[in-house]
Specification:
seven-stranded parallel beta sheet, 643 residues, alpha/beta, Immunoglobulin-like, 3 domains, 35 strands
Length: 643
């Protein structure tokens, strides 16, 4: 099935934004008061010379709108100069209207008077007026390539605002931008933090935003306890966001040099850029262009010292390692002619339970965050198994067309979905489900519509009780060959979780074949054949246990998924045996195929990819690439050719 990777269009052509969020080092958010056009030009030139083609810029709201019916003409003139300097360098910018929130502080216009940003009719009208006024002034400038309504409005506005109020506010402000006659694409700048991605309801629903806007823009600054999860943090959010069939721009990502050394910062950027590209992002805007060491007495830097050092350059304009990493990324995109590339179809689907994005009666918020966390771990394992999965949201219906459906550590699906999965299996797919009763003790157990018949087992559960995992390590020993695993092979998994989740499902086979047993001889992996396909049950919550274990990746779920993909017949033109290396492809509209090898190893690797019959790998320069050297956490891009 196709994997989403839609492009933003400006005018009659698509664009690939590679840029930075921009505040001049002369003033940060207060730059318009002390605007220095020559310094701005110097800052922009450094970015352009390192492969960046755009910025995201900001109308600092208290300054640009000093009264409810007036904009500051002098600052507008300075912004016009700012646009001219972009155009001179062949760059564009995406202005942001309501700022608002920025870098650890909220700033109100002096006239707001505590009015609610979403529900106060007069206050909403003032926001819409400002957006229309600014868009109308600058819509004809060739340096403007898009518009953003706000900067992280869920932090600036009321955090518990109802969905209906937020959607109405967004509709009115977006309509005002379009009523100005501005032809450029527009989005909200909310960060894509809402229910569908996080399980937390902040009023901003991606489904609503997708219906209103021209792209969706995740802001990702996750703190993790596992390097591989850290490297895929932004990519996972992009994959989730892409399920709404809008272009995905990684609108904010990055790090402060106070939290990472130069080499580690470069590594993070490399991984975030390439992994999000392979997850469907088609634009990248780093946070941010410059450090601000001269602004130590100015909020927010006076009280959030680490905010001074998110820059791609230092406060003197000298490039930092992460800027050089963006330049290398931009060079790769140019070499492969990314504008004409798409993600190829995939045979693997990760089914995301609707309990993530829907608030059902008498369910708990923990159930939603649990779906997100286990789903992310499963998605990473599928990537490292060289069987990258597309997200299939249960809320949209579970579509046919995939060879392998993954349901990791799943407690809850709608009743009809379990029957739908059985139907897909009869049609030839392999459906994999790993058991979980959830992580808390409320209605603790499998919410499966027909557990025994679906899996060909007889469960041995006792009401109100769970079956704790006795061992510090779960072992699955295969009693017969399965996919890429041989009889006698053993997979090992570190035990983790709460008292409610660190448990297994006791079953007896009743029509299913036992593929693997645990250390106590109990069925741990079973296959029930049905029609042209089958259903695989794992009686342990493997993905959940990994998701709550620090520094665990890559772990043996990768080997299990590799076997599942082989058993299901998932087409994989290129694989690498080393589970520390993920393989994915892009296809050019000329028929050329490009292969990404992304290492998750702290050591240098030499890998020998396996390619399909009649295929060969070469470097981008055409040299044979039977063996490929990967630097620590490195990336190599190759050509896949027909021989």
């Amino acid at each position: 099935m196709p994997r989403p990777a839609a492009r933003i269009s400006v005018g009659d052509h698509s664009v690939t934004w590679i840029g930075a969020n921009f505040w001049s080092r002369t003033g940060g958010p207060l730059m318009w008061r002390s605007y220095d056009g020559e310094v701005v030009a110097e800052e922009l030139r450094v970015l352009r010379d390192h492969g960046l083609n755009m910025t995201r810029s900001f109308f600092y709201w208290p300054d640009f709108m000093p009264a409810p019916d007036r904009v500051d003409e002098e600052l507008c003139a300075r912004f016009a100069d700012f646009l001219d300097r972009h155009h001179t360098l062949g760059m564009t910018t995406v202005p942001t209207f309501l700022v608002g929130h920025m870098s650890g502080e909220n700033w109100d216009p002096s006239w707001r008077g505590g009015r609610d940003l979403y529900s106060d009719v007069w206050m909403v009208s003032r926001q819409a007026w400002f957006a229309k006024e600014m868009a109308g002034r600058f819509k004809g400038h060739p340096a403007v390539s898009g518009w953003l309504v706000s900067n992280e409005m869920p932090i600036y506005g009321r955090r518990d605002a109802p969905r209906e109020e937020v959607a109405a506010w967004a509709q009115l402000v977006v309509d005002a931008v379009r009523a100005s006659g501005a032809p450029q694409p527009v989005s909200l700048g909310d960060g894509a933090w809402g229910l569908e991605n996080s399980g937390h309801d902040n009023g901003f629903r991606l489904r609503d935003c997708a219906a209103l806007t021209d792209w969706l823009g995740p802001h990702v600054y996750r703190m993790e306890d596992d390097p591989v999860r850290q490297h895929y943090a932004a990519a996972w959010v992009c994959e989730l966001t892409g399920s709404f069939q809008r272009p995905v721009v990684l609108e904010e990502f990055g790090l402060t040099s106070d939290f990472a050394s130069g080499p580690h910062a470069a590594r993070y950027y490399r991984q975030a850029l390439h992994n999000s590209l392979l997850a469907g992002a088609t634009g990248w805007i780093a946070w941010n262009n410059s450090d601000y060491d001269t602004l130590i007495d100015q909020p927010p830097y006076s009280h959030h010292a680490f905010e001074m050092h998110f820059g791609l350059t230092d406060s003197a304009g000298v490039p930092k390692p992460q800027l050089r990493e963006i330049r290398r990324f931009a060079e790769v995109l140019e070499r492969v002619d990314f504008a004409r590339c798409v993600r190829p179809d995939t045979g693997t689907a990760l089914v995301v339970s609707s309990y993530l994005d829907t608030i059902y009666p008498f369910t708990r918020a923990e159930d939603r965050s649990y779906v997100e966390r286990t789903g992310r771990q499963s998605w990473i394992a599928a990537r490292l198994a060289d069987a990258p999965a597309t997200v299939v949201r249960e809320s949209d219906g579970i579509s046919e067309g995939h060879r392998l459906y993954l349901l990791p550590s799943t407690k809850q699906l709608l009743s009809a979905s379990w029957y739908r999965l059985e139907e897909l299996a009869r049609g030839g797919a392999t459906v994999y489900v790993s058991y979980s009763p959830g992580a808390h003790d409320e209605q603790r157990g499998p919410w499966y519509a027909h557990l025994d018949r679906l899996f060909g087992v007889r469960h041995q559960l006792e009401y109100g009780l769970v079956n704790p995992i006795e061992d510090a390590e779960v072992t699955l020993t295969f009693t017969r060959a399965f996919g890429t695993l041989d009889e006698g092979d053993t997979l090992r998994f570190r035990t983790a979780g709460t008292d409610s989740s660190r448990v297994f499902l006791p079953v007896e086979a009743d029509g299913a074949e036992v593929l693997a047993t645990d250390a106590h001889g109990r069925p741990a992996l079973l296959l029930r054949r049905t029609g042209a396909g089958g259903v695989v049950l794992c009686t342990y919550p493997l993905e959940h246990m990994a998701s709550v274990t620090p520094r665990v990746n890559p772990e043996d779920t990768v080997l299990l998924y590799d076997a599942l993909a082989a058993h299901a017949g998932v087409r994989r033109p290129v694989t690498v045996e080393d589970r520390r290396v993920a393989v994915d492809l892009l296809e050019h509209d000329s028929g050329r195929r490009y292969v990404w090898l992304v290492s998750q190893s702290a050591e240098e690797l030499l890998v020998k990819p396996t390619v399909g019959t009649g295929l060969a790998l070469t470097t981008l320069d055409g040299a044979p690439a039977d063996a490929v050297a990967l630097e620590p956490y490195g990336v190599q891009v190759l050509c896949l050719t027909v021989v």
